[in-house]
Amino acid sequence: MEIKIQYLNDKDGNVKAVQIPIKDWKWLQSKFRIFSKELALKKDLEQAISEVTQMQDGTMKKQPLDEFLAEL
Question: pTM to 2 decimals?
Fold first, then answer.
């Protein structure tokens, strides 16, 4: 998707802001929400894998299933 960007300059020609069509803004917002959720999931999975690795090498105590389920 090509976004039509307009640049807003001050009197000296320095770019101070950008302006995009509202439909492009809404599209960007929806993509941002999706990417944010995916990033959060990725971080959660990385944390879980790290914890499993620590449990396997004995540096973290294993948690019984009933305690784990009680936390949910």
Answer: 0.62
Taking the C-alpha atoms of residue 13 and residue 7, their distance in angstroms, rounded to an integer, is 10
pLDDT for residue 71: 87
- Which of 6-10, 31-35, 39-43, 63-67 is least confident? 63-67
Residue 66 vs residues 29, 39, 45, 53, 72: alpha-carbon distances, Å: 40, 29, 21, 21, 10
Q: What integer pLDDT is reported at residue 1 of this predicted model?
A: 78
What per-residue string of b and e applies to 31-49 under the rule 16 or more CB within 10 Å gives b? eeeeeeeeeeeeeeeeeee
DSSP line for 23-34: HHHHHHHHHHHH
Spatial separation of the C-alpha atoms in residues 55 and 13, rounded to whole Å: 59
